[in-house]
Each structure stands twice: as C-alpha cells, then as structure tokens.
Amino acid sequence: QNILIVHGPNLNLLGLREPEIYGATTLQDINRNLSQLAENQGIHLDFFQSNAEFALIDRIQQTLHDGTDFIIINPAAYTHTSVALRDALAAVKRPFIEVHLSNVYARESFRQRSYFSDLAVGVISGLGAKGYELALEYAITSH
Ligand code: DQA
Predict the structure, then answer these.
(1) Is-catalytic flag, 78?
(2) Average pLDDT for residues 56-72, to the nearest whole number?
(3) Ligand 1 centroid – CA 40 distance (Å)
(4) Extents of the domains making up the chain
(5) Model pTM score
(6) What does the mean pLDDT of the chain come to?
(7) CATH architecture of structural domain 2-142
(8) Does any ligand 1 atom lie closer than 6 A to the CB of residue 26?
(9) How far is the CA of 73 from the centre of ligand 1 (A)?
(10) What backbone torsions phi and psi does residue 3 show, to the nearest 5 degrees?
C-alpha cells in the first residue's frame, strides 16, 4: 500500500509557528512518527510539503502515475481558498482524509469553510499531531 502525506503552506514552520494553536511538534517529528508507524506493516509512505499551490497540485496530479492508493492531506490555508487544489483531488480520484491540527470550527469563521471536506473520506480537526496518526491507522486498516 502506498500512502502520500501532503502538507500545505506554513506547515514547514510547525513547532515555531503559533505553538499555542499548532503545538510544539515539528513537521519532521510528525513525519518521523508516521514513518515508524508504517514500518514493519509493509506500507510505503511518501511525504510532500510545499508553500506553493502549483507544487501541491503537481504532486497530487503525479498520483495518477506513481502508484499512490491513498492520500492524507492537510491543505492548511488552501483549505479555505483553493478550488484548484480541490479540482486536482477530484481529478485523480484517490481517496483522501483531510487533517487539521487545530479545531477549525472553534476559530475564525473563514476557517469553517473547506473546499475539500465533501470530497474527503473523512475529516479530522483539532486532535493535533495525533490526527495524522489516526488518519494513517484508518488508511492502513480500512483501505
Ligand atoms: C490548519 C488550519 C488552517 O486554517 C490554517 O490555515 C493552517 C493549518 C490546521 O492544521 O489546523 O495553516 O490546516
């Protein structure tokens, strides 16, 4: 099973960035932890982070040819703005889980609209870095 983990803009700054909202865990910590969970289960993980919308779209488009079965994505701020990234996910038809570290429903109203949630298998929001683990567990055991 090949699972792609996609992190959107500013998530490269996790640990440093508004830790009271996003926690102290760095993106490297999150990815390392996911790698360990996938290890020994015959699961191959690919990681991709970008601050650029086009780069995220290009990476999603590649899943048409690279054997990706499932995507776990935190689109970050593009959650609330990017029809283009939504369209990329709709085009490749790979099942995906949308993850947010913070509870977007407990924050500013502009964060309460997602261009992704209705296409997602499911959405995890507000459980911090644990949300990625739960998404991975679901992807492994249920897909
Ligand atoms: C986020 C929530 C978004 O509203 C925000 O723009 C982010 C991160 C989260 O993980 O909580 O960058 O996706």
Answers:
(1) no
(2) 98
(3) 31
(4) 2-142
(5) 0.97
(6) 97
(7) 3-Layer(aba) Sandwich (3.40)
(8) no
(9) 11
(10) -115, 130
